[in-house]
Specification:
Elements lengths: L1 H16 L8 E2 L8 H9 L9 H23 L10 E4 L4 E4 L2 E5 L6 E10 L1 H4 L5 H5 L9 H12 L3 E8 L5 E7 L2 H21 L9 H4 L34 H29 L1
Parallel strand pairs: 1-3, 5-6
Antiparallel strand pairs: 2-3, 4-5, 6-7
């Protein structure tokens, strides 16, 4: 049957795109993660983590499709995205960085460069993100990595500024947030570079083993990072998590909770209008 063949082909295609957790370098997209131990283990023992399933792979693929759609729309608006997917590498610190693109404006000798990071997200999250502070203070750990990722892109390209281009996956709306060079940029950049230097030192330290990890590498700076860490309980045994056993909703859980809340509010509002009309 056709339906069965399409379903099978879809799953096989997604399965072929699944990659392991193993990392050979300090990825710029991860250097905002405030846990040296996690970043070390990601490189040292990441291959031991079971691969994710086809559904999560499909989520990743959807993000890439949204990214391409945003670039097309920006081009239609007169903003050409240049140097898309360009890669950079710092051999000494073992940092790798890939930018989504850049914009160049002005005359050749006086042109300004703005590095862009494109992110698609659910409508509920999109509505809550308005500034860099919203990334830094987000309850979603991966949102907190976005500033360091963009700062590294600005550093490698020597850009004058950075910009996040966000897309609401529900409505298609686009929203941009500037990230200028300044004290905050410098602070975030220095923290990311110093973290990469530490991880590289850990990787080259043969005295570190699976049994003495805690003697060399500090645990997470914030306990909530440990709650859903894939290394917790078999490769890392942090103390801080004991005081951080709180429920951190992932995107899917948070989106459902907010959706249910909105539905209940709508139903309640409808009830009040109906009740008022009956009693009138």
């Amino acid at each position: 049957m056709l339906a069965e063949r399409i379903n099978k082909a879809w799953r096989e295609k997604k399965e072929s795109r699944i990659k392991s957790w193993g990392a050979r370098s300090n990825a710029a997209s991860q250097l905002g993660w405030k846990c040296d131990r996690y970043l070390y283990l990601r490189r040292k023992r990441g291959q031991e983590i079971p691969a994710h399933d086809v559904i999560l792979q499909s989520v990743f693929d959807e993000g890439y499709l949204h990214e391409k759609a945003v670039k097309r729309e920006l081009s239609d608006l007169g903003f050409e995205v240049l140097e898309a997917e360009r890669e950079f590498r710092d051999e000494i610190r073992e940092i790798t960085c890939r930018i989504d693109g850049a914009f160049k404006e002005g005359p050749h000798r006086g042109e300004t460069i703005t590095v862009a990071e494109l992110k698609s997200m659910s409508g509920n999250i999109f509505d809550r993100i308005h500034s860099i502070d919203d990334f830094i203070r987000s309850n979603a750990p991966y949102h907190r990595t976005y500033p360091a990722q963009l700062a590294m892109g600005m550093y490698f390209t020597e850009a004058d500024a950075g910009v996040w281009i966000l897309k609401n996956k529900t409505t298609g709306e686009i929203k941009c947030i500037d990230f200028p060079r300044g004290d905050l940029y410098q602070e975030i950049l220095e923290d990311a570079i110093e973290r990469a230097e530490r991880i590289t030192c850990y990787m080259n330290n043969k005295a570190i083993t699976n049994d003495n990890l805690e003697d060399f590498i500090p645990e997470a700076e914030h306990g909530f990072l440990c709650v859903k860490c894939p290394f917790r309980g078999w490769a890392c045994f942090p103390d801080i998590v004991d005081d951080a056993e709180v429920e951190i909703l992932d995107d899917a859980g948070l989106e459902k909770a907010l959706s249910d809340h909105a539905d209940l509010q709508d139903n309640f509002d409808a009830y009040r209008r109906l009740d008022k009309s009956i009693k009138a």
